[in-house]
Amino acid sequence: MVNVLKRVFWSLDGYLGGAVRPTEARLRAVRHPVPFGAAGAVFSGGMCGLTIGRMDWQVALFGLVVGALFGLLVVLERKRLEHYGFRPEASTNGREHGSGAPGAP
């Protein structure tokens, strides 16, 4: 049963464009899941705090939970990209860390 669900998921994902080359932003996000999760935690906690008008431990806890979910989502996206053969570590072109050398690939 599980194998059938996996085949259905991967065939549906491939049909909906899962095998298309990912953008540089997606590759950067899956290379760095912890900062992406932290940014999600700060953003969601801040928006929740602004919405209800106060900042207390429930809002901070909400931000941490949503940040952990963002990080988990990025890890799952990394696994999906690896399934299609896109290695996030190998796809860097040398410009990520400010390398502006003319001979850089």
Account of the 3D structure:
With 105 residues, this protein is an all-alpha fold. Helix content is 66%, strand content 0%. It is built from four helices and no strands. The chain has helices at 2-15, 24-31, 33-52, 57-83. Helix 2 packs across helix 4 and helix 3 packs antiparallel against helix 4 (57-83).
Describe this structure in a few short sentences:
Helices cover 66% and strands 0% of the residues. It has 105 residues and is mainly α.
Instruction: Using the CA coordinates, give the radius of gyration.
Output: 18 Å
Distance between the termini: 45 Å
What's the total helix number?
Answer: 4
What share of the residues does DSSP label as strand, in percent?
A: under 5%
Average pLDDT, all residues = 80
H-E order:
HHHH
Q: Tell me about the biggest sheet?
A: none
Annotation, overall tally of beta strands: 0
**Based on CA inertia axes, which overall geometry fits?**
elongated
Helix content: 55-70%
Helix/strand/pairing category: mainly alpha
* Contiguous runs where pLDDT drops below 50 for at least 5 residues: 94-105
